[in-house]
Amino acid sequence: MSELIRLESISRSYGDAVPIRALRECSLTVHEGEFVVVSGPSGSGKSTLLNLIGLLDTPTTGSYLFRGEDVSRLRERRRAMLRGAEIGFVFQSFQILEQRSCLENVMLADLYSGTSSGASRERARRALDAVGLGERGESFPTELSGGQRQRVAIARALSAGPSILLCDEPTGNLDSGTALSVFELFRSLNADGATVLVITHDPSLMHYGTRGLTILDGVLSEAAEPA
Ligand SMILES: Nc1ncnc2c1ncn2[C@@H]1O[C@H](COP(=O)(O)OP(=O)(O)OP(=O)(O)O)[C@@H](O)[C@H]1O
Ligand SMILES: [Mg+2]
């Protein structure tokens, strides 16, 4: 499978006087078709890492190649275009609109893309199908469980066909049983070809991935193979 993401000695510091070193010389290569789970405690640099990979932020030092193109010093405009075309985000807090149906929530992904509403509706239906909510397009988020809401957010992230799904603590607001079902969903999406990178504070979820990494005090390392 071809290389999608390559971080080379990426560091990210915050502040000038006494900089907080949120990431320290992290290197990581992700190929298409991988399901990577990164686990680490609060404050270890997980969101910082995900924001960099998702082109929401730029590194202080080091380089980032996306499909071989150096994107570490891109201007915001170009970064935003690349982000819109290539990255699907899922966050802990779902970020779906209560006053809109599930289908409309997923269609929001196409709001600025110039996609016709017919095509957008069709894409949204397919994405809802993929997350097991094909029958719930007309439901409102208030009629759904937490796990189902997160599935709507996952469908929205998937609908435009991103190259990678980036998920920041996607099960942080869910009970443990529901969290497992969301990780099962990631696993099945990955089996169908999606490239997925999930960060979580829960190390027990690491084995769901095709690959596990840990992050501690801004240092990323490959997790030991399970015995
Ligand atoms: N915008 C910012 N300005 C200053 N410091 C920041 C900023 N964002 C993050 N940090 C610091 O960088 C470190 C890493 O933060 P980050 O948000 O990446 O951690 P995290 O692993 O995602 O934690 P959590 O599990 O609590 O979400 C922390 O020490 C945090 O306080
Ligand atoms: Mg975080």
CATH topology: Rossmann fold
Alpha-beta classification: alpha/beta
Residue share in helix: 25-40%
Whole-number total of structural domains: 1
| Distinct ligands, ions and cofactors found in the model | adenosine-5'-triphosphate, magnesium ion
Termini separation (Å)? 26 Å
CATH superfamily: P-loop containing nucleotide triphosphate hydrolases
How do the strands of the widest beta sheet line up side by side? 6-7-8-3-9-10
Largest sheet: 6 strands, mixed
| CATH class descriptor name | Alpha Beta
The poorly predicted ranges are none
Number of strands: 10
Shape category: globular
Mean pLDDT: 94
Beta-sheet strand percentage? 25-35%
User: From N to C, what is the helix and strand string?
Assistant: EEEHEEHEHHHEHEEE
What CATH architecture do you see?
Answer: 3-Layer(aba) Sandwich
Rg to the nearest angstrom? 17 Å
Count up the helices.
Answer: 6
